[in-house]
Amino acid sequence: MTHRLYYDAPYLTEFNARVLVSRPSGDAWEVLLNQSAFYPTSGGQPFDTGTLGAARVTDVNVTDGGEVWHTVTTPLTEGDVIHGRIDWPRRFDHMQQHAADHMIASALHRLLGGVTIGLHISADVSTIDVAMPGGVTRISEEDVRRIEADVNERVQRDVPIRCWFPDAQKLPLLPLRKPPTVEEHVRIVAIGDDEMVACGGTHPSTAGQLGLVKILSVTPARGKMRVCFVAGARALADYARCSQAAHGAAALLSTGVENLPAGVAALQERMKAAEYELNRLRREHLLAQAPQLLAEAEPLPDGTRLIARFVPADAALLRDLASRLIGEQGAAALLGAMHPDGQTALYVFARSADVALDAGALLRDAARPLGGKGGGRPDFAQGGGCPEILQAAADALRTGR
Questions:
Q1: Pairing status of strand 28-33 against strand 68-72
Q2: What is the C-alpha to C-alpha distance for residues 91 and 189, in angstroms, rounded to an integer?
Q3: Which of the chain's ends, N or C, has fewer CB atoms near its CB within 10 Å?
Q4: In sequence order, what are the residues at sequence separation of 6 or more whose Cβ sits closer than 8 angstroms to the Cβ of residue 338?
């Protein structure tokens, strides 16, 4: 079993240790030391990085037997005493996130009865999954702010954080938030007077070192509630980004940050009104082209006037234009509207009451070989697919196939 120095000295950044095993592993090497300050991936907290001598440490894992294995970039010599150096900014960031996890979990448990079942610390944000009473997967914005305020009040008071291995006789007497997941070598972390739980991670010595804890979102996740948060330098960076964005947006709207929500709401209303007016004008303009489209229609041998073309329209306008065209006698309208991706199109095929054409069959037969879909009544059909469908249908109609 490796002596884990970080248990008693989480602020230790340099140490000496003897190399017990150095073995190749793919393009890297795995090293076992008699003692180590490198934290291995466990409990949702990522591994530490740093160096062992001249070798970079790229991964750290622990076995069930307590052996801490370091993945390094170059081999080390067994029996040598090596100097280790921890990447402190990464370690301290993880300490801040892990302590914030405990404090959010404690607030959720005390105030709302939630039970935390998992932690994940990524490079940008951290998340905890929580089983809530009644299986609820969302909480109100008011409750989110209440949890956040509870945590940051303790951060402002700089409550102490204590980590220790209690005697086996004393462990059952401790007011733990939830039972330990291991039976031996149970390590306890207590934050202030109202949070105590088993944990093997690294933490600051006081809550004030978290600086700030910010809950970013609360969303459903696999039947549980997922809380996304940041703490410490991550929270400060998030505040800086949001502040810059808010002030920039406020300047564009010529208002103060405090008036930004109202300003955006007013802008949205104006945009909706402008979009409605634009769509109305676009509709009038396109429908007004129906007489010209009929005048420019291609005459077929049986006298049918064929209008086969793409037009700038959505599905509803496409149907309205087709209905306008077939209101005249002798018209066959094969209309398409390109999707914004430029790869697919919507189609409406329609014909006047006096035209002997099955529009549904024509669209279906043209679309199917090209991977599209479509069909409908003999006088009116809809579908979608690649742009080539329109040409294929028009050619079939011209040749009578």
A1: antiparallel
A2: 17
A3: C
A4: 310, 344, 345, 387
Cα separation, 176 vs 189, whole angstroms: 9
Contact (CB, 8 A) for 84 and 14: yes
What CATH fold (topology level) applies to the domain 92-240?
A: Threonyl-tRNA Synthetase; Chain A, domain 2 (3.30.980)
Q: Are 186 and 198 in contact (CB under 8 A)?
A: yes
Q: Are strands 35-36 and 3-4 parallel, antiparallel or unpaired?
A: parallel
What is the rounded distance in angstroms from the CA atom of residue 103 to the CA atom of residue 125? 16
pLDDT the model gives residue 342: 85
- Cα separation, 147 vs 286, in Å, equals 55
Measured between alpha carbons, how far is 43 from 8 in angstroms, rounded to an integer?
A: 18
**What's the confidence (pLDDT) of residue 123?**
92
Domain boundaries, the chain: 3-86, 92-240, 253-286, 289-399
Query: Does CATH number 3.10.310.40 belong to domain 289-399?
Result: yes
CA atoms within 13 A on the CB side of 326: 25
144-156 b/e with 16+ CB inside 10 Å = b? beebbebbbebbe
Task: Please name the residues in contact with 181: beta carbons below 8 A apart, sequence gap of 6 or more.
Answer: 198
Residue 153 to residue 30: CA distance in whole angstroms: 44
Question: Is 35 within 8 Å of 80 (Cβ atoms)?
Answer: no
pLDDT tens digits, 22-67: 999 999 999 999 999 999 999 899 999 999 999 999 999 999 889 9
CA distance 401 to 357: 12
Where would I find the H helices in 329-372? 359-367
Specify the 3-state DSSP secondary structure of 93. Answer: helix
Q: What is the pLDDT of residue 181?
A: 82
CATH architecture for segment(s) 3-86 = Beta Barrel (2.40)
Residue ranges for the chain with pLDDT beneath 50: none
